[in-house]
């Protein structure tokens, strides 16, 4: 019997260089999570799934995880907190870099990589 999943959503805001504010959200439940960037561009940043056979779950922060507080340590808790802002920043900067290059520059890079 598959347990009903209860998705949680957490709004994320972070400032990067040049005072650019990145706004996004983390949607997660015990076995899946997805990070979305909403401003200044909209895109799916990153997502992962944990296999049901692995005794572990995703949590946003162990300090706020109800089961962890109650003492239920029956499985490994994968803390998402340190990863979320880092992934938002990485994705945004990669997107900027990719969009700043001309189609011709991207073609040349792909061509060079294919010859290696």
* Structural class category: alpha+beta
Number of domains: 1
Q: Radius of gyration in whole Å, from Cα?
A: 18 Å
Question: Hey, roughly how much beta strand do the residues contain?
Answer: 35-45%
Tell me the number of strands: 6
Give an overview of the whole structure.
With 116 residues, this protein is of the alpha+beta class. It is 33% helix and 35% strand. It is built from 3 helices and 6 strands, in the order E-E-E-E-E-H-E-H-H. It has helices at 66-70, 81-100, 103-115, and strands at 8-16, 20-28, 32-39, 43-49, 56-59, 76-79. It is globular and about 55 Å long. The N and C termini lie far apart (49 Å). The model has no long low-confidence stretch (mean pLDDT 77).
What is this entry, summarized?
By secondary structure, the chain is of the alpha+beta class.
Please specify the SSE layout and strand pairing.
Blueprint: E1 8-16, E2 20-28, E3 32-39, E4 43-49, E5 56-59, H1 66-70, E6 76-79, H2 81-100, H3 103-115
Parallel strand pairs: 5-6
Antiparallel strand pairs: 1-2, 2-3, 3-4
């Amino acid at each position: 019997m598959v347990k009903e999943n209860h998705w949680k959503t957490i709004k994320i805001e972070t400032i990067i260089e040049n005072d650019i504010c990145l706004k996004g959200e983390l949607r997660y439940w015990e076995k899946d999570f997805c990070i979305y960037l909403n401003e200044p561009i909209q895109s799916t940043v990153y997502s992962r799934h944990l296999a049901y056979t692995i005794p572990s779950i995703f949590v946003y922060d162990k300090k706020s995880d109800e089961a962890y507080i109650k003492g239920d340590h029956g499985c490994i808790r994968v803390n998402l907190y340190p990863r979320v802002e880092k992934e938002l920043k990485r994705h945004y900067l990669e997107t900027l870099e990719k969009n700043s290059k001309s189609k011709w520059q991207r073609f040349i890079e792909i061509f060079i990589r294919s010859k290696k």
